[in-house]
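Please, structure for the following, as tokens.
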Amino acid sequence: SFIELIHAYNVRSQQSVFSKDFLSNKVLLITVIGAITLNVSMCYVPIVAKAFNIIPFIKYAFGGCVAVFV
């Protein structure tokens, strides 16, 4: 989901996402910050994680995911 947030900046114009001013669009900036906050809170705040029915990664599962994608 973080890649989608970067893509939101990228579709604004023909320039690269790294050559633009991130602070020029205040609404997009607030939306991206809110989305990042929500994503992080879903992983680390127990009440929010329970509301979204998210369980934490165990070490073995994380290692398996890394092994599959490498």
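The mean pLDDT is 76. Residues 3 and 9 are 10 Å apart (CA to CA).
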